[in-house]
Amino acid sequence: MSLNIDKSTWKRVAFGDVIDSITDRVDNPSEAGVDRYVGLEHLDPGVMTVQRWDSPDKVEAQKLRFQPGDVIFGRRRAYQKKVAKAEFEGICSAHALVLRARPDYVDPDFLPVFLSSDYFLERAIEISVGSLSPTVNWRDLKVQEFNLPPWEEQKRIANLLWAVERQKVAIKTVGQQIQSALQFQMASSLEAFGSTVRLGQVASIRSGPSFAASDVSPVALEGSIPVLGIPNTRPDGTFNITDVGHVSGLAASTGTVDEASLILIRTNGNRQRIGNVYLPPTEAYGYAVSAFQFLMKVTDPSYREYLYWVLSTDTMQERMSEAASGTTGLGNLAVKWLNEQEVPWSATRADRDRFLTMVNTYVTARDAISAERTALASLRFSLLADVFGGN
Predict the structure, then answer these.
(1) pTM higher than 0.70
(2) Structural domains in the chain plus CATH codes
(3) Which of 18, 51, 301, 364 makes an SS bond possible with 260, Cβ 3.0 to 4.6 Å?
(4) What are the E-state strand segments in 248-287?
(5) What's residue 2's pLDDT?
(6) Contact 66, 92 (CB under 8 A)
(7) DSSP tag of 62
(8) What is the pLDDT of residue 359?
(9) d(C-alpha 15, C-alpha 371), whole Å
(10) Which region holds residue 130: left if phi is over 0, alpha if psi is between -120 and 50, else beta?
(11) What angle do CA 140, 143, 149 make, to 5 degrees?
């Protein structure tokens, strides 16, 4: 896509001449008179509005106050590309800059678009100081010069990018609604079965092998086995098998993934991750799992998918998170406990098939939404590159 932008009319300006850094400091967050605190952890790369926050009474130390329309820029570790416009009043981390456009020079709606561009972010990364937590200082940023379009052109560009952003947010909301509906329908259908079976009766469960870091190679060696680790099983339920360690010296009895397998997170510092279940793709067949995961082998591979969805229900996920042992640090789930869990079951295979048909209807809709979100993210990237590329 090309927008045929005429950059001959763009003017070079110092950042601090057209943008203000707001330093309204708040020493006691709980007395700030606002009900929203935005930390860097609440800013999502590629999302131009603040979508998440926490309560000010949960944080201490000095913060910065922002107003509706201000843009919060994560100046610490700028390479994370965290930029978002606030649509409400609140306080934010002092590791951010609160930036406000001078409306005589910069359209306020254009500012978050500009700050989201690689044109700006690459410069911000370049001027960051510090090795462990590189940080952008205002004194350095304000003197940086950028080429900016005339105000009316800014408005046209902003309108286009915000149209894409609004569609992204709307699509995300639809995706969340589909997921909620899926969970509701699964719970209702499984409850109607009226009977259960112990998990240990329909599957065998074992944790992955332990091994030394020195036994791991990034490439396959003679006699080595590829082993899936926690990074390969993503929080969104997908797999990443492009970066898998190959372990030498594992016992011949080491279990590997096949058509009867499910993978569960056994150990994690985040309790919400414990019990997360994965349906491995065929590309992962023959791989082992780490000691931080369980390899579950379903007795009859034909109902592996059914068991996957049963374990994916909110009820079962919450149950596994709460059952993890350990009060601090890493939590662990026990094989014995898992084996004793009662899971919904029907003696009639047709019931389980109808359940899967219902689930797949929602999954098809969810996948379509996911594909649209990916397309919109790609469109956003292309538009920003077209607008600001070559500066």
Answers:
(1) yes
(2) 9-148 (3.90.220.20), 149-194+347-391 (1.10.287), 195-345 (3.90.220.20)
(3) 301
(4) 261-265, 267-268, 277-278
(5) 57
(6) yes
(7) -
(8) 97
(9) 37
(10) left
(11) 130
